[in-house]
Amino acid sequence: MICIITGDIVGSRRIKDSWLSNLKSALKLAAGESNRWEIFRGDSFQVGVEAEEAIKLAAYIKACIRVNKPADVRMGIGIGTIKNKRRKLSESSGDAFVHSGTAFDTLKQSKTNLAIKTDNPDFDEEMNVLIKLSLIAMDNWGEVAAEMVKLALENENRLQSELAAISGRTQSSVSEALKRAHYNEIMEVDKLYRKKLNQMILK
After folding, report:
1. One Pfam family this chain carries (predicted)?
2. Fewer C-beta within 10 Å: the chain N or C terminus?
3. Could you read off the pLDDT of 66-75 as tens digits, one per residue?
């Protein structure tokens, strides 16, 4: 099982290009050693990640883009298999790509910025409700909140005092920004997603 995330930048033609370098950095980190990511048509992208990491990395990509407010990002998460693994991600095929494209295509109609699709409709229904609830916070991240979420996800094992030292902010401002971003709640959604995913795989 693998995850393909398909996305695009919302309103990219109306905003500065500062989001592009952040997107590239986010996709490189998300793809890891596999380096399976592409940007195409100027503001659209695909990245292959481990299925368990899907929610966390989608949140990370969103934080990287929201730092450049009013920029935002739409993403369709597809979980499945890859049949033909080619050198270029866009030339590969399989259920993960189909599901990712289907999830992405539903975003405009459902007026949401993130959705997931697998072979399991019950899993999809449950997780998409949790994602919609998470988006109440994520879609409203300001620049500072997004910056702190980005930093926290890049340094998951560090204390808030260490994040404060890295960012040049006070510990209280870091704590307040993460609280405002509902960071802990989003990480709880990530934890539940991993649990449900493993249960689904084992069935």
Report:
1. SatD
2. C
3. 998 889 999 9
